[in-house]
Amino acid sequence: MLLEALGRLYRSDDSFDGFRDIVRRHLLRIWPVEAGDEVLGQTVPERRLHSLASASRETGVGKSVLNGFLTEAGAFPPDDTRADARKTFDAKKYKPLLEEIPTLVGPIAMRKAMGATLVELKSLKADGVLAPRTKVATIKSPWRVSDGLHLLEELERKAILLEAGTLGWETIQHVHKRVGLSVGQVIAAIRDGRLRVGKRAEAFGYHGLVVNVAEVDQSELLRSREQKMAAMEGEMNATAFARSIGVREKGALQALIEGGHTPAMEVLHPLTKRSQWRMSGADIAAFHDKFTTPTVIVKETGLHRNTILAAFAAHGIEAFRLNGVAIGPIYLQKEVAPVLNTLMS
Fold first, then answer.
1. Helix or strand or coil: residue 277?
2. Domain residues of the chain, as ranges?
3. pLDDT tens for residues 310-331?
């Protein structure tokens, strides 16, 4: 009724102009008014606000997809439950994003555009050589074709043209599979000139880019990898050690380590680049000095597992509890030693 009065009934009455300006400014702050629309006698020159609904209409992109992009970009808080028509955001600030979203493609179109296999694209993503525009898992078209083409153009500028069937060269992905170097490491070596890159005449795009097998095998990249692997010899992955002592509960040994009850070293694996806990011989010995498990006791004594567990139950011995919670079949040596001495005597 107020808008009807100010916009029509009293439209020509100058005495309402001040109040009309106040109402108009307020409406433009809260309503997703389209450019060209008239608000209380004045045409809006440009859109100030979008709603999720209006943005979907203008871009032709589904509201759920837009919501994912815009929430990730900070336009909405993650817990925003407003209706689509009421979820408003700054149209000018997010205009570049709205213009870009319809141009993004899925993995099939991306790999075809740059001449890569699906495995190659996944490796490029895993190593951060190519990054999708969004990390929202439900969005199926997260890729900028331009990113793939720029990478391809960069590498092809450095490439030596090879005749069809030239031997002694392999794809970047094959290097990763054959010797365990990451795709990112190989591409970094190409960029700084440590490895030459060739381009097979008979192959299109990224899959046609190859490196020399002999150069890879003689490179410091491989020597560095071998040195890192050698440095890890004599150490054991904490998860593998847990399995070897009969602890199958996920995270049980890690909880002991992180709680400071048994020593280990947190390192980055030289190939996977993932953090993991590893145990040296001294770390393993320290564990056995303090703890034991039924599996270990069976190996050391030859007693049947049920005999061991029955003896523990008869003497009221329970598995070690971390912050009051049992985490697996791990027992304190000082508690079980007297019982085992009795069984063995």
1. strand
2. 2-43, 49-103, 107-227, 236-344
3. 999 999 999 998 888 888 899 9
